[in-house]
Amino acid sequence: MGDIMNGRKLFAIGVILVLATAAWFVLAGSVEMRTGDSSSSLGGEVAGLWGAPQRQLAPTFSARATTGTAQVELVGSDITAGLRLDQRRKGLMWYSTYVVDFAATYRVSNPTANPERVTMVFNFPNSDGVYDGFAVKVNGSEVPVTYKEGSALAGFDLAPGAKATIGAGYRSNGMDEWAYVPSPEGVGVIKDFRLAMKTDFPGIDYPGDGVSPTTRTSSGNGWDLEWKYASVVSGRTIGVIMPTPLNPGPLVSRITFFAPVSLLFFFAALVLLTTTSGVKLHPVHYGFLAAAFFAFDLLLAYLADRVDINLAFAIGAVSSVALVVGYLRVVVGKNRALVEIAISQSVFLVLFAYSFFFEGYTGLAITIGSVLTLAFFMAKTAHVDWDTVFVRKPPVVMHVPGYAPDPFSPFAPSGPVAPPQAPSQPTHRNDTPPPPQGER
To answer: CB–CB of 241/205 below 8 Å?
Structure first.
């Protein structure tokens, strides 16, 4: 016969679960606070060292005429961008920093019958960024450049009916995202456009206001991406978002926040296992087991910013399982129930928490695990007589001669009390019959 459950015992287990849930919520809140502080303080530090997200605008060309300044049409663009990823970790957050090699060739023409003085305005992605090796060349010859408020200005002469090829490029550092804006003023006509991008990382995504490449080819550990249009009307950007590893802070916060769910499943498994086997556990035992579960998230929360997240997870999981199995080995001894409890903890603690490493699949993994667990316990408890499991033991009433219990006492027996019986007559201890009445 296994452990006998009653309302008081289940209520005590429920109280333990509620207290453990409160402790987990406090821990999750502290992790979120540390993550927020780390993101706000270290994010600016990383951006100052390695640059912010970059959005390179197409340059504008204008010509000075007798009637004023007129825009010169950009008739072609040939751009290359090489991106090398260099992820960096600070505290509980990862930052996807990168190095970009940008080179562009632009083509303009003078359709008028008069010579024009053309000025190119090249706006850098960030006014406080670092752009190594920047230069402007017109038809292969470098021209002087002046800088003003985050922009580079270069002028050149363009004869009537002539065309010019203008080259510009630099090397810079950025973070999280790089994008090119072919039409800075909104929707416009983009002619003879080509942008070739090469990455050294496989995982890429595109900005919400961007367009996907016209061709995409795998190249080693990265991609060769190309956007090519003969003539298109668009105001959207072209770019990529850098891949980011699992950030320890948000990951640990989610695992900690949902930890009470895993403990609930584990306690339910314990109740079923103890009622169907020869194992008896007191609510105090459940309290210590909840503390062992909490030890996993506590270790994970304070190791995540010191060591690799996978190593922190392994240390926390091994420590928690060792606490539970070692404790129950002393409590229940070596039997099959101990093995089943250890497997239950591995499923409800380790696998449940590790499913959060796979973004987008956590809910599916938990659902599949829950259904399989339900099937196992349904099969295991199909022949259990639950009436005997949840039976309530009758109170033990002691009858003392000459004592009448108070009928209003909560401990009084519910039924009639049998009167005390008179002591039996003593019997002789020998086989000699008693003497006749007249011989006394």
So the answer is: yes
